[in-house]
Amino acid sequence: MIFDAHCDLLYKLWREPDIDVYQDERLQVSISKLKKMNNNIQCFAIFIPEDAPFINRMDIALQQITIFYEKIVKFYPEIKLIKTKSDIDQLTKQEIGAVLTLEGCDAIGDQLKNLQILYQLGVRSVGLTWNFANLVADGAHEKRNGGLTNFGRNVIEYLNEKQLWTDVSHASERSFWEALEIAKYPIASHSNAYSICPHVRNLRDEQIVALLKNKGMIGVTFVPFFTTSKSNPTISDVIKHVDYICGLGGENQLGFGSDFDGIDVTIEGLENYACYATLLNELQKHYNEELVHKFMYRNFLEHINF
User: Which of 202, 199, 208 is nearest to 253 (CA)?
Assistant: First the structure.
């Protein structure tokens, strides 16, 4: 059983409309690969490219949601949209849960009503930003390292009210700390440990500890350059991040957020969703069965409040 907190399948389908969602080899996450493992939960991100005109960004988000409903749910009834935790409880062994997420608030502009629309359409986790600044917060690559705007605080209050996840992956350090002060349900859907790999998108020790103290979740990601600075990373490099975060007290708050279909270069042995089986086998060499089940599935499940 797998709970993957982040993939960019919807963006890839939006960018390349000719892709066959069932088994196209260009996809790292396809329906056929998802169906090989039963009872899993996959988070599908809505991502707005940085070069999209501001006036079109909400429309692009709606287009990607339409793709989800028209190209996935309509033709594959075994894919079930998850709006509440009880929806997961009702899944059969042959069904797959799908959680819609928003990667950065660029789509909503300065309008809370846009976020309300996305919530009604099924979005249950909201990333504040994607690397750069928007009208909610500064991202990890914004040199000024600004924090939340007043509107950004209103966004988090809305997420708290609806018991949705506030995703701090991609946030600047200042945005991270300011978000953690008010977010009731924080996660970092796809980030690794800075001490293992010093990339600006990774979390420093004090951030990891603070996220854990705030009952948050961390999704260890498979982005090669978030995993190690050496060339040709392998699964063992991913497990180093698991070990490290567990050493900081994260064994009950650690999962995975692959970033499949959001990456062009992959880790050896983790080229696509089917490789979760290999990761599972490697984890079982290091941890007992109960702990592996927590990492792969149960930790994220138990941190759902919506």
Answer: 208
Band (39; pLDDT cuts 50, 70, 90): confident
Say which DSSP state 260 is in. Answer: B
Query: How many C-beta atoms surround the C-beta of residue 292 within 10 A?
Result: 20
User: What token pair was written down for 50?
Assistant: 């940085």
**Rounded distance between C-alpha atoms, residue 166 and residue 154, angstroms:** 12
Half-sphere exposure of 212 (CA within 13 A, CB side): 18
144-165: average pLDDT? 98
Taking only Cα atoms into account, the Rg of the chain, rounded to an integer number of angstroms, comes to 18
Model's pTM, two decimal places? 0.97
Residue linked to tokens 């309008």:
111
Q: At residue 104, what is the residue type?
A: G
Max CA-CA distance within the chain? 51
Closest CA to 96 of 2, 187, 217: 2
